[in-house]
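Fold this sequence, please.
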Amino acid sequence: MSEQHTEKPGICYLVGAGPGDPGLLTLRAKQCLEMADVVVYDYLCNAEILNHAPESAERIYAGKKAADHAIAQDQLNDLLVNLSGQGKTVVRLKGGDPFVFGRGGEEAQELHNAGVPFEIVPGISSSIAGPAYAGIPVTHRDHCSQLTIFTGHENPAKGKSVIDYAKIGSAAGTKVMLMGVGQLENVSAKMLEGGADPGMPVALVRWATTGSQQTLIGKLGDISSRAQRAGFSAPAVAVFGGVVDLREELNWFEGRPLFGKKVVVTRTRSQAGALSVRLRNLGADVNELPTIRIEQPEDIKGFGRLVQDAHKYAWIIFTSPNGVDAFFDLFFKLYNDVRSIGGARIAAIGPGTANKIKEKHLAVDLLPDEYVAESLLKQILEEESIQNEMFLLVRPNDARDVIARGLSEAGAIVDEAIAYRTVAEIGDPTGAVARFEADGADVITFTSSSTVEHFLDMELPLSENLLIASIGPVTSGALRSAGLEVDIEAIESNIPGLVAAIEQYFAELG
């Protein structure tokens, strides 16, 4: 047992991360992550869930893969006690549910014995989510009203198994086995010895609820040999029972248009979610590999002066959602009423930027037909004479000078407010780079010239079969200038347009 701490402890949240799909994380789990000083996470946790924790939070990988633990359990228990004892808010993030064949109960006991406050946050277990995503209901009124959940991986310290697999195999209803693919031959043999029907339908679901999900169907008498021939390995859930046959009618997930396609998202960590969610909704296996991050401009005082004087301008032009956020974050530190912005007309380069502006309860006066700088400039010049009109152009440090130069040549007075800088993302807390190097991808997406530039600086290998998808002509130009071929380009230069273009590409391939 760990030592008793005399100083005032923090708290440890034992949180279920769910089965893999980030959308299945509970709201309470997200809240805990947002409060975390330290996150201690397992192998089966989707690493993208860590993005809910503050950037300042320490992230500790605890491993917990079969026969390969990054941190031994007794050391892990001590770690949780010690971190919480330092007054920190600790999130112990566990795949699935902490108490369903996890060691959350042991960890909670250790915290209790050390006098450390803790909270249990249940998660969705793969024992029900895995079958559901394979189109298999674990109970069904017309088929079974009993569910047995068991493990194929017991505590080795017991010496011998205490699970009667023969009795489980002959029991009524659905049987779900977790952590047992390596023991499948032994488990199925004992079920058969106990009188179980060799024709009982069985399903193995690997990497359930993710775009990498694989499902193997067989019978109790042959599932082990099928799994060996297919090289079907952990992590997987095994489902035994007649409900497996319902998969033919209920297989809703694996038929999605991008199912099984590995897609890399290179947007900033804070922005990646909008694209990732749309891709996952189509079944893609998404790897968020940010190449850039957003930082304050070098001359924050100069930017502040222009924001403060925003009411003096006839037009305010926003060229990105990040620019809108940076502008109004500072604006509302200076003013407490949005009307202080004055009577300026507002232009946005695209719908994403326009939506950000609307979130501030302001109308957008001009949105170009094509979401590029050239189109925005053309429509402003067509509006009316802009001779001696004052324009405030809110942009990043590395934007093209198309708008500023064009307006100035037409006689306007243009002040450029550098709202933020895009810099290389040097951190890789989720292991996305290693995953890309090991597993590759089917598609890599680029949403700006900056993402292209900084991705190339990473010098990662690009396979011949990797498809390159661009959000629009400007980004495509940056890719071609770098000697890369653009396979997919969005018709509308926004996130929905990019996703639609990727979906259409694969639909045309059949």
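The CA atoms of residues 10 and 87 lie 4 Å apart. Residues 262-291+426-509 form a domain with the Rossmann fold fold (CATH 3.40.50.10090).
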